[in-house]
Amino acid sequence: TLAFVFDVTGSMWDDLMQVIDGASRILEHTLSRGSQAIANYALVPFHDPDIGPVTLTADPALFQRALRELYVQGGGDCPEMSVGAIKAAVEVANPGSFIYVFTDARAKDFHRREEVLQLLQLKQSQVVFVLTGDCGDRTHPGYQAYEEIAATSSGQVFHLDKQQVTQVLKWVESAIQATKVHLLSTDHEEEGEHTWRLPFDPSLKEVTISLSGPGPEIEVRDPLGRILQKDEGLNVLLNIPDSAKVVAFKPEHPGLWSIKVYSSGRHSVRITGVSNIDFRAGFSTQPSLDLNHTIEWPLQGVPISLVINSTGLQAPGRLDSVELTRSSGQPLLTLPMRPLSNGSSYQLWGGLPFHAPQERFYLKVKGKDHEGHTLLRMSGVSYSGVPPGAPLVSMPPRIHGYLRQPLLLTCSVHSALPFRLQLLRSRAQLGEERHFQGSGNSSWEIPRASKAEEGTYECVAVSRAGTGRAKAQVIVTDPPPRLIPATNVTVSPGETAVLSCQVLGEGPYNLTWVRDWRVLPASMGRITQLADLSLEVSAVIPSDGGRYQCVASNANGVSRASVWLLVREAPQVRIHTRSQRFSQGVEVKVSCSASGYPTPHISWNRDGHALQEDSRIRVDAQGTLVIQGVAPEDAGNYSCQATNEVGTDQEMVTLYYTDPPSVSAVNAVVLAAVGEEAELVCGAAGVPPPRIVWYRGGLEMILPPESSSSGTLRIPAVQERDAGVYTCRAVNELGDASAEIRLAVG
Q1: Neighbour order of strands in the sheet with 440-446
Q2: Does 180-274 match 2-175 at the fold level?
Q3: Which residue, 502, 609, 660, 665, shows the most beta carbons closer than 10 Å to its own?
Q4: % of residues, the chain, pLDDT over 70
Q5: Which of 109-118, 139-148, 361-370, 579-588 has the lowest mean pLDDT?
Q6: Of 106, 118, 119, which is closest to residue 145 (Cα–Cα)?
Q7: What's the mean pLDDT when you consider all of the chain?
């Protein structure tokens, strides 16, 4: 999942514009690669005290539309409900997702960070923060929550000016890879220089180094000690001198590469690669030959075993050890690994039981590939021990339902053991008890909600290790206002347009109008909100055209509907090539586009007459003229004409027939006696007619016009020194052709 978590307070206007534009490029870049990097898209807006609504879709066009329908509101208050919004994104996102948080404020709900950290261990997703502000205090727990979330997920915190958001989004385009693997993740509290010698195996197609911190510098040396320069394959993806630097390169040689970084302050380093060799880790209190019977985090205080599932590793490749490392990169513990027998050789590996450290740690997996090259991979998240015991149960604290509409109650349980699940209300069980072998989600639906369904519901999961509970308060209210938008409005320039939305329901409501993601004031120049809450646009100009949103709200929520204002415009034709030359037999395409409203009809004329289409000549649905197997008689003037109810416009293009030159010698050898005239003749053809140039010995012969006519070179009173090879060269704009004639003097 590609997820954007976006702060929609008023101060984020510039950021929103850049994110909308950048998202389009990211989606186009991802789709053009044809990779399976992105399965779906999520958008989570937040604005104190509201989070959402959450958009989750597999349709990139729908995702972009949801982004464009965002509008900023209110002032630039600090702080914001950002951690809850991140949690919502991690919950809906697939495992291994890319989550980008855009805000200019620290977190108000930082007390929820532990929930997010546990979820990130479960989902193995990465969270990157793009901060254009932090409320001015980086020692506050509301800011430090961002650093902790980023460090846990191998993400980073980027501090930018608002005009630099576009630069980060250009880096995001290349950062989203389906086969991304982690090679190094470190965090450093103070300024300093750090050097790592990392083994790069042949499967690494590309390596990216990301350094977040002030005054960032990166140096890369290959296994021979040579510094990689910009003109030698080091691609700078992002360079913000006071905040971040990201470089990428394709390692041409396997072996130990040296990476040196420097920052003048607190900083973090992430090194990733593109490779099909990676691993997944699971933890278990009992020996296991099935990764599905493990859990995603270690348990505190009891011996646990580590199971590693390697992917893409060919025999006789192997894993030798797993090193537990601090966030600074220092080792904590090394566990030797051995293959586990489950019928799938070289895939499952295990180690001796160990006790989880008290501090957070990364897993660094070391081994050899099938050719004996050293392998190094790191976990995408850092781990912390969780106390063993009862199932972990979660429900939304408040579930909002609407009268006479379906209401869904959902409960999420994470457990290392089989468990029984019940939904209770006032200690009475609702429905049947459900049984699960491991972690899972369960839902109960109330088909038609009423006030009688309000109250406290409890989800109870019972396993051999204990009982887990979570409660939710269900509130049922009248639904938000229901909107019926009027039909789209079409006017001519200078006229007055009235846009309206019909609101259903008897309760009080507020109605505002939004355009270009900003709320329109009740009166602004030519735009006025009338007493009946419709929107009047007087003296319409073409730039007034576009989508307007009416937003109706009451105490129960918000509804939106779109109305389009369409402004009639006379056509304007544009032919992208005014003249075009062609050779016989090729296919010629001349594209013609036309703006205007209503959409103009495009037709083609030739020499003032309507173009007759046949099996060779046609106009496609986009208005492009297509001539197949073009012939000399197709040369001429063609006009593209666009017509709608407002008017007509046209442009002309000229097609010229051309033919590359050809040349041949009438006689390959010419004999002449001393004192006689010699005549060397070349026949040339081509359109336009080619110019004839004569050469002798590779040098162009400068001749008076009368001495060379129609490809004939005359040499009066031949001498013995005139003997040799002469070249006639025919030249026109399409190219040239040559022929040789030997003059023999006897």
Answers
A1: 392-394, 407-414, 440-446
A2: no
A3: 665
A4: 94
A5: 579-588
A6: 106
A7: 85
Contact 646, 568 (CB under 8 A): yes
The DSSP annotation for 378-395 comes to E-SS-B--B---SPEEE-
Query: CA-CA distances (angstroms) from residue 640 to 574, 602, 613?
Result: 8, 7, 14
Looking at domain 569-657, its CATH architecture is Sandwich (2.60)
Residue linked to tokens 């030359």:
581
Q: Does domain 180-274 have CATH number 2.60.120.380?
A: yes
Tokens found for residue 504:
């259903």
**Do 447 and 462 form a contact (C-beta atoms < 8 A)?**
no
Sequence-distant (≥ 6) Cβ neighbours of residue 746 within 8 angstroms: 671, 672, 673, 674
Q: Longest Cα pair distance anywhere in the chain, in angstroms?
A: 128
36 pLDDT above the threshold of 90:
no
Going by C-alpha positions, the residue among 199, 206, 150, 211 that lies closest to residue 181 is: 206
Q: Retrieve residue 165's tokens.
A: 């958001």
For residue 268, pLDDT over 60 is answered with: yes
List own/partner pairs for 579-582 with CB under 8 A and 24 or more apart: 579/653, 579/654, 579/655, 579/656, 580/653, 580/654, 580/655, 580/656, 581/655, 581/656, 581/657, 581/658, 581/733, 581/734, 582/630, 582/634, 582/635, 582/655, 582/656, 582/657, 582/658
pLDDT at 543 over 70: yes
- Please report which confidence band the pLDDT of residue 708 belongs to, taking 50, 70 and 90 as the band edges: very low
Task: Provide the CA 519 distance to its chain's centre, in angstroms.
Answer: 29
Domain at 659-745, CATH class: mainly beta
The span from the CA of 32 to the CA of 394, in Å, is: 39
CB burial readout 38-63, b (16+ within 10 A) else e: bebbbbbbbbbeebeebbbeeebeeb
Tell me what pLDDT residue 709 has: 47
Please state the CATH superfamily assignment of the domain spanning residues 482-565 in this structure: Immunoglobulins (2.60.40.10)
- Domain covering 2-175 assigned CATH 3.90.1150.10 in the classification: no
Q: Cβ(425)–Cβ(411) under 8 Å?
A: no
SS3 per-residue string spanning 67-96: HHCCCCECCCCCCECHHHHHHHHHHHCCCC
H-run or E-run covering 206: strand 206-212
CA angle 417, 421, 427 (to 5 degrees): 135
- Read off the pLDDT of each residue in 542-554 and give the average, rounded to a whole number: 87
pLDDT over 90 (residue 377): yes
Cα separations (Å) of 567 from 139, 541, 564? 53, 7, 10
Per domain, the residue ranges of the chain are 2-175, 180-274, 277-383, 392-477, 482-565, 569-657, 659-745
Residue 400 · residue 472 · CB < 8 Å: no
Tell me, what's the pLDDT at 197? 94
554 half-sphere exposure, CB direction, 13 A CA radius: 15
CATH of domain 392-477: 2.60.40.10
Just give the CATH number of 277-383.
Answer: 2.60.40.10
Question: What does the alpha-carbon distance between residue 143 and residue 134 come to, in Å, rounded to a whole number?
Answer: 7
Q: Exposure string (b/e) for 508-540, b if CB count within 10 Å is 16 or more?
A: ebebbbbbebeebeeeeeebebeeebbbebeeb
DSSP per-residue string spanning 611-627: ----SSEEE-TTS-EEE
